[in-house]
């Protein structure tokens, strides 16, 4: 009996012990977010202690700030240490409701919420030892003295160059940050074009030389491509290569005159050492592009996220190990380029969020959305009742609640979806930034941005003729535009002013040609007398491929001479489509008439009135003649020879009107 009681006691102790462990674990849950962190920019909220590296130069200002919350007892404070030294207090204040909601989105039972700020400028300076890394550890310290590690930041002693973006427009200043340079090592920060095969760094003579360079020491920034010192704080003087005095206060433009970088691919790197050309750090590549608007001229346009400023490749935990992008949230905006929206239908923003994401939570007045902004400004964040910078909003699209759309994916990627921003009515031209009005306690990872071009209406198919009256045997030129070969388009001539097409036993064309695009067909010219008529005239009986665009077909048998159109009324039209007989253009009606040689006045008879009119015309009276008919000797000229021949003909001389033999 005692043994049974003892067993119950032991079981109770085990249950109590594990319950205590569970409680302790829950109390240590936290979320920490850095709005800024020692020059690294923002670091999104995380529920685990992560390690980061940052660069530091003795005496440099280093600050950080953000928000923190979790299941911690009242009286918990925030502290930090440097290299396990003395504990230093971190300034805190009560966090606003939006932060509390953000924390609760990660730690459901959170009870403690702080805004914090820390200035390590003095302590880092005091603890600095050359060549020794400084390790900053941030803790939550509970009233009982126990500590929970929240984040670690370690100074990086390596030489490094970095840019805040990898894409610049022609003429833009290019700010390059450098770290841990050593002037005693002859370090210089330089910009080179990306090398071609066989090109290497090295002293002159060398066909591979830098474009711009500056002598550097320690850590700092150099503003290249800014010869006019337009950027505030750029106090280095731009000089051409001939004025290089090896000082730390110049930027050398490696030419005889000063000019900015032309469009192309470049990189920044620190070189140095005894040779001056030893590679001291990894190069950072960037591109300079012409300052042109991106248009829909070439169809859809996909933004290369990896070239934009502020991107990183830290999204494996979100389900995107290879993605280079940005996580947008509280008051973020992201410049994405210069655009002419007039040719685009929409902008597709593909994004992913925490699977608990709701586009409009109970405490929200506005729905979470993505917006295109005309300036690099924010649309606002979750706790607002109206959008910020409303006058800068070009267009926006609401987000949707998270749901499992990609069950085989991991983490946030399971809910990847797309917000479609309608820009079909926009004529905006200029810079565009993407901003995200976030949902309470959530951010959104941008996976892709694609501008969708408007569907262009098919070119109108037209035909045209220089005139609508022709003589028998005269070549007939018909021009066409917008024809589509894949649509089986063909240009044809039918007898009559109107016709049916493709009916069994019905009318057929008299001459036709297969066409595509724009061009001109010379019909009624079987002998290719017209210069430039390079299509072969042939019988329709030989039309076997139904696609020969180098021929003109006459509707006669293969053994029949190819005839010109007899006098009559005709019309031209483009047919095509699946049936081959859909009407694809307006028709043009024209006539072919017999030529009456000598009928100068066009009354269909040749008599003295024609001779009189011709003589008056030749005497430069104010009269009009049919020059073709009045050219009675058919030599292409109208002169006294025609008048003489016509008078002889009317006087019954033994002559004939028409071409004269010698």
From TrEMBL:
Q: Which GO terms describe its molecular function?
A: hydrolase activity, hydrolyzing O-glycosyl compounds
The UniProt entry, under CDD domains, shows:
Dockerin_I (cd14256)
* Pfam families attached to this UniProt entry: Dockerin_1 (PF00404)
Dockerin domain sequence ranges: 593-660
Q: Which UniProt keywords apply?
A: Signal
Please name the GO terms of the biological process aspect recorded for this protein, alphabetically.
polysaccharide catabolic process
Q: What highest taxon heads this organism's lineage?
A: Bacteria
Tell me where the signal peptide lies: 1-22
Q: SUPFAM superfamilies, per this entry?
A: Type I dockerin domain
- UniProt-recorded name of the protein: Dockerin domain-containing protein
Per the UniProt record, the source organism is Candidatus Egerieisoma faecipullorum
